[in-house]
Automatic annotation (TrEMBL):
Any one GO molecular function term: ATP binding
Cofactor binding mode and count: Binds 1 potassium ion per subunit.
Name of the molecule in the record: Bifunctional NAD(P)H-hydrate repair enzyme
Taxonomic source organism: Halorubrum miltondacostae
Residue intervals passing through the bilayer: none
Chain positions recorded as (6S)-NADPHX binding sites: 54-58, 129-135, 158, 249, 317, 363, 428
Alphabetical list of Pfam families matching this protein: Carb_kinase, YjeF_N
Subunit structure: Homotetramer.
Catalysis performed (reactions): (6R)-NADPHX = (6S)-NADPHX; (6S)-NADHX + ADP = AMP + phosphate + NADH + H(+); (6S)-NADPHX + ADP = AMP + phosphate + NADPH + H(+); (6R)-NADHX = (6S)-NADHX
Lineage: Archaea, Methanobacteriati, Methanobacteriota, Stenosarchaea group, Halobacteria
InterPro entries given in the database record: Carbohydrate_kinase_pred_CS (IPR017953), CARKD (IPR000631), Nnr (IPR030677), Ribokinase-like (IPR029056), YjeF_N_dom (IPR004443), YjeF_N_dom_sf (IPR036652)
A GO BP annotation: nicotinamide nucleotide metabolic process
Top-rank lineage group of the source organism: Archaea
Length: 485
């Protein structure tokens, strides 16, 4: 089962892997033609009713696979207004052939067959698919009514036009028109809303490589961009809790969170290091905690700071000195928001009873310290991480040459990044990045996207600096790494 937004991500990831959208459209069209052959003998009249997006494009391809039928293609709208290059190219390919095509610009002119021709035996509804917004407009609405009134077998491409593939509900107001399909041929995987329809659903394999789903890719970034109308605070506020023996770690995490899109980042750290943290960047807001180590005495203060933000990044540079574990345990017990837990704070997580939603970011060694298991076979390792995440009830991002991201439900792998990133501090950059992302999306996606973009930033830094990569190279490269292309 794959929801529409995830399908769009997987589609973009497939393109990045070298299987472009036009190739998928060819397979989709072929699958639509197979469905036609399953319901009608050669020679039957087939009307393909096409919209101007890629849903229509799928049927424009299908027309080329249906030579043995009496095919008629209806394009709803002018060819110049076809919305995608690949659909337009497939229209042009048809226009050069003998397939009868007709364009409908006025709903009053819409007819499924010419007055002297036979009514169609099969209608392919390729008006609208996953790109639909709102109820059917004209001429789609008139066309849908005509399709519903006909006696033909109706095959919907991807989803019946006027139906939301994620919910199975009408996209328009209650009582609005949608195509009533006998059959639906959908692509790659089932869609959540199709099961509730009174139609036979076929899922067609269109050659999307499994890696497009299994590995992170540029598609995972789709829809994460900032809303241009957003206000300060809408893109997330992050509190980094760290420092003591180390100053660089909380600073790197905080700078990364800012570069990954957070509006406001505060650092709560022992006052002994507050000046040094602040000295790194005037963009950071520092909240000093009395003393030179965090401890139980600071729980109340940190909890009140945490109450005002979207996510907490807990751990960078805390060390494992006296009182640190107690602080982490007491804070997490009381906290019920979202947090990224890294470094020395990790080992506390398995023993703590918390309502917080955590993303834990261990490397292999830290995973084992937490009680998790690892394996050399990547598939086995992924499954072990998924099981451990399910046991913990939290999201895990286990760092390695291939990162494993898992919660109880799913696993994603990330293979961006390079050996140069084993230098100190890159983990802090990752924790801060995931912290910023977890303020605007769910923990699993935040972890997957965080691993992907930090690896990408590291790859860009390695290209520029070769073996001399240092963690401070990474935050400034995050904005570029977060572009969805
Ligand atoms: N990964 C994918 O996303 C895949 C997509 N494929 C096909 O591509 C389709 C999605 O294509 P598109 O994203 O181009 O979208 P559609 O073809 O569903 O819609 C295209 C356009 O229709 C217009 N429109 C929106 N709402 C409307 C309404 N209520 N009334 C009238 N017009 C309206 C909009 O201008 C929109 O851009 C899928 O349903 C599927 O058929 C498949 O070929 C396989 C893979
Ligand atoms: K459709």
């Amino acid at each position: 089962m794959i929801p529409t937004d995830r399908m769009a991500a997987v589609d973009a990831n497939a393109a990045a892997l070298g299987v472009p959208r036009k190739q998928l459209m060819e397979s989709s069209g072929n699958a639509v033609a197979r469905e036609v052959r399953a319901v009608a003998e050669p020679g039957a009249a087939v009307a393909l009713v096409c919209g101007r997006g890629n849903n229509g494009g799928d049927a424009l391809v299908a027309a080329r696979f249906l030579d043995e039928y009496d095919v008629a293609v209806h394009l709803l709208g002018r060819p110049e207004t076809i919305r995608t290059d690949i659909a337009r190219e497939n229209w042009a390919a048809l226009a050069n052939t003998d397939v009868p095509t007709e364009t409908v610009t006025d709903s009053r002119d819409f007819a499924l067959a010419a007055p002297d021709a036979d009514a169609p035996d099969v209608i392919v509804d390729a008006m609208l698919g996953s790109g639909i917004a709102g109820g059917l407009r004209e001429p789609e609405q008139t066309a849908a009514a005509a399709i519903n009134a006909s006696d033909a077998t109706v095959i919907a491409v991807d989803v019946p036009s006027g139906i939301d593939a994620d919910t199975g509900d009408l996209t328009g107001e209650s009582g609005s028109t949608a195509v009533e399909a006998d059959r639906v041929v959908t692509f790659h995987d089932e869609k959540p809303g199709l099961g509730s329809l009174d139609a036979a659903v076929t899922v067609a394999d269109i050659g999307i490589p499994a890696a497009a789903e299994r590995y992170t890719g540029p598609g995972d970034l789709l829809g994460l961009g900032r809303d241009p109308d957003s206000h300060k605070g809408d893109n997330g506020e992050v509190l980094v809790v760290g420092g003591g023996p180390y100053t660089g770690a909380p600073t790197l995490a905080a700078l990364a969170a800012l570069r990954a899109g957070a509006d406001l980042v505060r650092v709560a750290c022992p006052e002994s290091v507050a000046g040094a943290v602040q000295g790194f960047s005037p963009n950071l807001i520092v909240r000093p905690l009395p003393g030179d180590r965090v401890g139980s005495a600071h729980v109340e203060r940190v909890a009140s700071l945490a109450a005002g933000v979207d996510t907490v990044v807990l751990g960078p540079g805390l060390g494992d000195g006296d009182g640190v574990r107690e602080f982490v345990a007491e804070f997490l017990t009381a906290y019920d928001g979202r947090a990224v837990v890294d470094a020395d704070a990790l080992r506390v997580v398995p023993g703590v009873d918390t309502d917080a939603e955590l993303v834990c970011t261990p490397h292999q060694g830290e995973l084992v310290d937490m009680g998790g298991e690892t394996a050399s076979d990547p598939d086995e390792r992924a499954e072990l991480v998924r099981e451990f995440a399910a046991d913990l009830g939290h999201t895990l991002l286990v760092k390695g040459a291939v990162d494993v991201i898992a919660d109880g439900d799913g696993v994603r792998l990330n293979r961006t990044g390079n050996p140069g990133m084993t230098v100190g501090g890159t983990g802090d950059v990752l924790a801060g990045t995931v912290g910023a992302l977890a303020a605007v999306t769910d923990p699993f996606r935040a972890a997957a996207v965080g691993a992907y973009v930090v690896g990408r930033a590291g790859d860009a830094a390695a290209e520029a600096n070769g073996a001399g990569l240092v963690a401070t190279d990474l935050p400034d490269r995050l904005p570029e790494a977060m572009r969805d292309e």
